[in-house]
Amino acid sequence: MSIATEPYMNTTILASFSSEHHLNSPEQKVFWQQVTQSSFKTRDDISLAYARITHPNSIGTIVISSGRVESYLKYKELMFDLYEQGYSLFAVDHRGQGLSARTTSNPHQGHIDKFQRYVDDFAEFIDKVVKPHPMGKYFLVGHSMGGAIGTLYLEQYSNTFKAAVFSAPMYGIKLPLTKGFIRGLAALLDNHKQPNYILGGKDYHAATFDKNDLTNSKLRYEDYRELYQQVPQLQLGSPTNHWLVESIDAGEQAVQAARNSKIPLLILQAEEDTIVDNRAQKRAINRLCQLTKIPYARHEIFMERDKARNQALTALLTFLAQA
């Protein structure tokens, strides 16, 4: 275990977190055996997978909204660390990815018909799965696309959560050309009868560590890729053109939703992010929306080297403790 002591918002906390040098530890394996894994059906009969665990001395409940291509299985380490801090936990696999049902004939395509569908699914998850297990205050933690989903949920359902922390939220996507041009091109190429990949898109493939844009931690990256080999159902490839159009628009909406938030929000910004647009995150800063930059971190902050990850977790826990 590694020790992280970080000052944040005039507060210093001492927290013990997992280490990249002891992944899948015996303690984590025992913890995961206690986690309930199940699924529920949405109104339109789509099966969404989720995980939950109740802490016997719960100080609150954290709901995790994961990023594109992700599953709650990827969050085992994070869930363990948050549980060790006293939180009960819920995590859901969004429609079309993880262990949830796919919505395209090609299971590798990252696709959605309307971004609002993610938000509606998340609202159903909260109502059907989370709220029947009241355990103190509710807090929201979201990553990347899950941060955009979470932000739009907060705009539409402002009374559920006490506070939220978003890791590298997808308030804008890092694009090779202007947003308007890319959106127009994706809309033009979009096949409305049969979802099709963005230009250069393809089925799942595991990039080597030296070509990855996600993390500086070779150990956590290789563990992540091994998980997707062990559970092929998790594998997801590139997004479709329609997903891209919907997500570009949703990012803009999320920026405004964050700026107008009615609850405290904390953005954890990855200094070395090449996946989402950090400039869009800065536009979200306002009275209740704060931003903390995590140095030497790529997009997957919760999969980073211990020093950067520990700093992010300390900021997250301190922020929630003050909410």
What report would you give on this structure?
- It contains nine helices and ten strands.
- The chain has helices at residues 26-33, 76-84, 115-130, 145-156, 179-189, 218-230, 241-259, 278-283, 306-322, and strands at residues 2-8, 11-17, 36-41, 47-53, 60-65, 87-92, 138-143, 163-167, 265-270, 289-294.
- The strands form two sheets. The protein has an eight-stranded mixed β-sheet, sandwiched between helices.
- Helix 4 crosses helix 7.
- The radius of gyration is 18 Å and the shape is globular.
Structural class: alpha/beta
Strand content: 15-25%
Instruction: Indicate the overall shape.
Output: globular
Kindly report the average pLDDT value. 94
Number of DSSP helical runs = 9
Report the major sheet.
Answer: 8 strands, mixed
Number of strands: 10
Helix fraction bin:
25-40%
Distance between the amino and carboxyl termini: 27 Å
Sketch the topology as an H/E string, one letter per element: EEHEEEHEHEHEHHHEHEH
Low-confidence stretches: 1-12
Strand order of the largest sheet: 3-4-6-5-7-8-9-10
User: How large, in whole angstroms, is the Cα Rg?
Assistant: 18 Å
Please supply descriptive tags for the structure shown above.
19% strand; alpha/beta; two-stranded antiparallel ribbon; disordered N terminus; 323 residues; 8-stranded mixed β-sheet; 9 helices
